[in-house]
Amino acid sequence: MVALNLPVFDCKIKQVEGKPYIFDSLRRKYVRLSPEEWVRQHIVNLLLTHYGYPKALIRTEGGLVLNQTQKRTDVVVFDRQGQPFLVVECKAPHIPLTQSVFDQIARYNHVHKAPFVVISNGLTHYCCGIDHETANVRFLDDFPAFVQ
Predict the structure, then answer these.
(1) Which ranges carry the Type I restriction enzyme R protein N-terminal domain (predicted)?
(2) pTM
(3) pLDDT tens for residues 30-40?
(4) To 5 degrees, how large is the angle CA 124–CA 84–CA 103?
């Protein structure tokens, strides 16, 4: 896998029938290692180790229904009241973060209504704060701090 613009961590990788799998500490199992999964695992590690997000409040590959279609969010962090706090959309490193990626996370967050969203391909990251009452979006310099 390619080096990312995210902190390196000691990940567990194994081969199953000639295919790489990475250990997902949130789901507590090995999952198929794709370029997108590589980014997702690095983002989760960043949230846990560098920003202090509680492990119990992070969900990966969670389902949602959008326009009567089942979709999956890459990462959702919940606040202590169980409300979505941060939605993260991960792309493979070779995928550019275009307007269509912003549109995708905006559609997903229309359901979740989290105050923060992030898109990342592991090399570039965009963090935004969302005011749902005014529909105002502001770009942030860093990932949002988790309020204890």
Answers:
(1) 35-144
(2) 0.91
(3) 999 999 999 99
(4) 45
